[in-house]
Amino acid sequence: MVEQPGGAVSDLSAALRRRVDRVGRFFLLMAGALVLWIVFLAVKLPTRKVAVHYDIAWVGFDSGLAAALLVTGALLIRRSPHVVLPAAGTATLLLADAWFDVVTARGYALVLAIVLAVGVELPLAALALTVAVRAVRRLAAARVTPLRSV
C-alpha cells in the first residue's frame, strides 16, 4: 500500500487505477455539463411554477429522509463501518431539505422554515457529516480500503 497526496491509498492494480481515473474524469465532465445546465435554467425558468404533485414530492422526499435517518441511526448503534455512505447521504438530504424549505416558503412559513433549518436541519446535517468523516478516519486508521473495484 502506498500513501499518495491527499491521503489516497494506492494498492490497486494498474487496470483498476485506469478505470477509477476514467470514472473520476467522467464525474468532472458531468460537473461541467451541470454548470452549463444551471446557467440555462437560471435564464429560462420562470420564477413561479405551480407543481401538480407538490404534496407527493414532499412526502416522498421526507420519507426518503426518514429512511436515511433510520439507517444511519441503526448503523451507528451497531457501530458498523458501513455508516459512512448513509451518514453522508443523510447530511446531503438534510441540506437539500433546508434549502428547498426556505426557498419555496413565504410569509410565516418562511419564518418557520428558517427556524427549522437553523435549529434542526443544518445542525443535524453537520452531525451526520461528522459521523461520516469520523467513520472514514477510523477505517483509514485501521487500514481498511473500502474501494476494491468500481
Quick one: overall form?
flat
Q: What does the average pLDDT come to?
A: 87
Terminal-residue CA separation: 18 Å
What is the total domain count? 2
Q: Helix/strand-derived class?
A: mainly alpha
Give the topology string: H per helix, E per strand.
EEHHHH
Kindly state the percentage of residues in helix. over 70%
Number of strands: 2
- The low-pLDDT segments are none
Number of helices: 4
Radius of gyration based on Cα positions: 19 Å
Oligomer type: single chain
Q: In percent terms, what proportion of residues is strand?
A: under 5%
Main pleated-sheet profile: 2 strands, antiparallel
Strand order of the largest sheet: 1-2
Question: What does this entry look like structurally?
Answer:
The longest helix has 34 residues, at 108-141. Helix 2 runs antiparallel to helix 3 (84-103) and helix 3 (84-103) packs antiparallel against helix 4 (108-141). The chain is built from four helices and two strands. The protein has 150 residues and is mostly helical. The chain folds into two domains: 1-45; 50-144, no CATH class. It has helices at 14-44, 54-77, 84-103, 108-141; strands at residues 2-3, 9-10. The protein has a two-stranded antiparallel ribbon. A hairpin with a 5-residue loop joins strand 1 and strand 2. It is flat and about 55 Å long. 73% of the residues lie in helices and 3% in strands.
